Amino acid sequence: MSQKKVLFIVGDFVEDYEIMVPYQMLLMVGHACHCICPGKSSGDYVMTAIHDFEGHQTYSEKPGHRFVLNADFATIDPENYDALVLPGGRAPEYLRMNARVLEIVKHFANAGKPIAAICHGPQILSAAGVLVGKECCCYPAVEYEVSAGGGKYVAPNEQFNSACVSGNLVTAAAWPAHPAWMQAFVALLGTKIEL
Asked: In CATH terms, is domain 5-189 a member of 3.40.630.30?
């Protein structure tokens, strides 16, 4: 397997599992992963949030961990990366307002490079205008934005553990879908895992 370079765009209150787990999974199978955040540099950190489904009308939120960034947002060149990951949480609601974030996302979409987005991550895809004609699964509260951005909303299954593949895009509704979401993403990357 040839190592791929994967870029993660994150921000404060990114969902803890949705950055920690995919980041570690992709490292485990041999890929290089770089994590960036607007206004921050390598060695800085973002605070994560832990979201859970506890029977309320929406998810609950608890403090997570400090996730250390390992690349500089200001100098990143998306040409040097093979794929993009957009975790969820509250970060996408403000990351989508950053013009450079949207430029980076458009690069991956226009180049046909694999993109993985989960939970609220598709808010960024919608703002970047790259969902037109694509099927997209997301947290149900983001359905309107997917549709408004020209995408076709795909509802998650009852267990929230399904993923949707639409061309170069792999999406899912929440962290219970990590196995299906990452399996589909590494398949797009051409990763061969031998057990």
From this structure: no
